[in-house]
Write a structure and sequence with these properties.
There is one protein chain. Helix content is 29%, strand content 27%. The protein is of the alpha+beta class. The protein has one domain: PPM-type phosphatase domain (Phosphatase 2c, domain 1), CATH 3.60.40.10. The strands form two sheets. A five-stranded antiparallel beta sheet has the order 1-10-9-6-7. A five-stranded antiparallel beta sheet has the order 2-3-4-5-8. Strand 6 and strand 7 form a beta hairpin. The longest helix has 21 residues. The chain is globular. The C terminus is likely disordered.
Length: 240
């Protein structure tokens, strides 16, 4: 039986600019969700490539933060992104990545407001990531993100602006848990309507991913964003 699955719906957007990817290397498996900023062919295609690139890097490093930093820095070094005016017209995406590796705990890293959660065997959902947006820092708009893949700012620059680095990460010992990676279009409508995520994370990973995304669209109100969920059962993670 498959241990992970993803499902996405376009909502009311013109393009599906969320993307997911997985990659396995020497027993390390990376799970990635990227939420493209904007709606266009260019953003859609760039985000799909970025997700695959990030999954590969994270699996090769066997660590979520190391993989995300490698890809973040590679995009930041692109010549076109050095122009502080032109770079805002280039594709970009929020990103969250989780990695399991033999003999190691779960690692999760992110830039932006795509989220990572785990459902414990007791049925409790824990959020592992903290949003990089104005709501977290200033109590402002949650739709304005402070960090993203495709930005050029360093950890120190982001800390000076917003009090958090460009990339954040957590390490958790997780065994027999269910991982959920979700775009804001998937978690916001459920959160706003006071839904319990645990209610949607039952059944197979495929059923759970479909339930999260489709329920998000159903509760989105007058405007539905791209909604994407990646669900993975973590059965072999161990502490060091």
């Amino acid at each position: 039986m498959p241990t992970h699955a993803a499902f996405q719906l376009i909502g009311d957007r013109s393009h599906q600019c969320d993307a997911t990817a997985t990659y396995t290397h020497n027993g390390a498996r990376a799970y990635v969700l990227c939420d493209g900023i904007g709606s266009s062919d260019a953003v859609r295609d760039w985000t799909r490539t970025a997700a695959r690139r990030l999954a590969r890097a994270a699996a090769l490093h066997a660590d979520a933060e190391a993989g995300l930093r490698a890809v973040y820095e590679a995009y930041a070094a692109e010549p076109d992104r050095q122009d502080k005016y032109a770079r805002y017209d280039l594709p970009a995406a929020c990103a969250v990545v989780a990695v399991t590796a033999p003999g190691k705990p779960l690692t999760v890293a992110w830039c932006g407001d795509a989220r990572a959660y785990v459902l414990t065997p007791r049925g409790t959902v824990h959020r592992l990531s903290d949003d990089h947006n104005r709501r977290r820092v200033f109590g402002g708009s949650r739709n304005l993100v402070n960090s993203y893949l495709g930005a050029t700012e360093t950890d120190e620059q982001r800390k000076a602006q917003y009090g958090h680095p460009a990339i954040e990460s957590v390490t958790r010992v997780m065994e027999n848990c269910r991982l959920l990676l979700a775009s804001d279009g998937a978690y916001e409508p459920l959160e706003d309507s006071a839904r319990n995520l645990a209610d949607y994370l039952t059944g197979t990973p495929s059923q759970a991913a479909r339930d999260v995304a489709s329920s998000a669209i159903a509760h989105a109100g007058t405007y539905a964003d791209n909604a994407t969920a990646l669900v993975a059962d973590l059965r072999t993670a161990r502490t060091r």
